[in-house]
Amino acid sequence: MAEAFAGIGRIAYEGPATQNMLAFRHYDADAVIEGKPMRDHFRFAVSYWHAFRGTGADPFGPGTMVRPWETGGDPLATALRRVDVAFEFLEKLGCDFYCFHDRDVAPEGATLAECHANLDAVADALERAQQRTGKKLLWGTANLFSHPRYVHGAATSPNAEVFAYAAAQVKKALEVTHRLGGAGYVFWGGREGYQCLWNTDMKRELDHLARFMHMAVDHAKAIGFTGQFYFEPKPREPMKHQYDYDVATCVNFLRTYGLEKHVKMNIETNHATLAGHEMQHELDYAGLQGVLGSIDANTGDTLVGWDTDQFPTNVYLTTQIMWTILKHGGLAPGGVNFDAKVRRESFEPVDLFHAHIGGMDAFARGLKIAAAMRADGRLQKLVDERYASWSGPLGRRIEAGGESFASLEKEMLGKGEAAANVSGRQELFENLINCYL
Ligand code: XLS
Ligand code: NI
Ligand code: NI
């Protein structure tokens, strides 16, 4: 097949001073930071759905993307051709991983058996392409939200046969992910939620979701899949309320149903903000709960209130993200997946390169800045000072469980008043961050 991205060569690291917009200024895959090459810090992945299936359609108009390789005709033949395009892109970009939904890579068939056969045929091609290029699958997932059968949800559908169909679909997607050596498997519950509580038995739906997840865990064990399972929290869109609202809600669900050992989080920036959190909050909360798994890298728009899935270019954001990831010991076997799409107005194939280069560079800068902040140590020292009283005798006794309400009452009756507070110095902290940018 002729090259899909003719005229574009391998994207190289050329350093911050380069004028070449098709080069990396900061992402230098083999450069070592905190003892690890950048490529291993990030494990960057391209998402198949946005990069190779996104059309640019929005609620007000059809697709705009110019994709010369999408010549139409037999959907399976097109899907197979698209595999070559995807791997040409990964190779030229120098990106080590990709992620997919079953229905991104292979077309839906008229029956479940036909769907399975289509997926097998494309998996053969993906496996060959992985072997040829050394590219790897970060995670797979099943699309349980686009087809009309999933109108009321999949694992939480009121229709038991839809639950059964979804189970069969995930079984297959899991097997294909396993066959392709996927490092993980994601559950994003797009339609697992409700629009109207009057017609919804929430308890029953949550019980069903848990039953579904236990079956997934059992099947992974049965086939020997040892990759990491992830939930991808999102509070709403498409549903008014989604059960995997945010990290805290997911952790509560997993513990309630005895699934906490099996599932970590795949955290997406734009979903965090939809839930009313900063990405840094979601990451830090997941980290302290031991469920920080992987991230979907993107960003929203402050003036548009939905999941706009834009490429991340804000270095302040990537600094917050990388600071928190380093603090909790990194992502592997997870990684940084660009769940992001080029704007409808950016319809030429070359825009896919600009978008990913910008995202990778923004993350590389965030990593360098966060590592510099850690090496310098001033920020951590200021935080430690803020909590210094907890290293004193009283604080240590409370933390160790050696005090009670009664003993503390005695202590404070003796003192009469607590020690004076010290300023939180938020502005100083914020100014300090800017010293490293
Ligand atoms: C949608 C989600 C989706 C998941 C994968 O908002 O981000 O793209 O990442 O199903
Ligand atoms: Ni999303
Ligand atoms: Ni996502």
**What is the averaged pLDDT score?**
97
- Name the beta content range: 5-15%
User: In total, how many domains does the architecture comprise?
Assistant: 2
Number of helices: 16
CATH architecture of the largest domain: Alpha-Beta Barrel
- N-to-C terminal Cα separation, in Å? 45 Å
**What is bound: which ligands?**
D-xylose, nickel (II) ion
> Order of strands across the widest beta sheet?
5-4-3-12-11-10-8-6
**Beta strand count:** 12
Task: Specify the structural class.
Answer: alpha/beta
Radius of gyration over C-alpha positions, nearest whole angstrom = 24 Å
Q: Tell me about the biggest sheet?
A: 8 strands, parallel
Global outline? globular
CATH topology of the largest domain: TIM Barrel
* Proportion of residues in helical segments: 40-55%
- In the predicted model, the low-confidence regions spanning at least 5 consecutive residues are none
Structure, described:
This protein has helices at 38-42, 48-53, 75-93, 102-105, 112-133, 160-179, 202-223, 247-256, 269-274, 279-289, 315-327, 350-376, 378-386, 393-399, 405-415, 426-436; strands at residues 32-33, 36-37, 44-47, 97-101, 136-141, 184-187, 193-194, 228-231, 241-242, 263-268, 292-296, 336-338. It is an alpha/beta fold and 437 residues long. It folds into 2 domains: 32-376, Alpha-Beta Barrel (TIM Barrel), CATH 3.20.20; 379-436, no CATH class. The strands form 3 sheets. Strands 5-4-3-12-11-10-8-6 form an 8-stranded parallel β-sheet. The structure holds D-xylose (XLS) and nickel (II) ion (2 copies). Residues 101, 141, 186, 188, 232, 234, 268, 296, 307, 339 line the site of D-xylose.
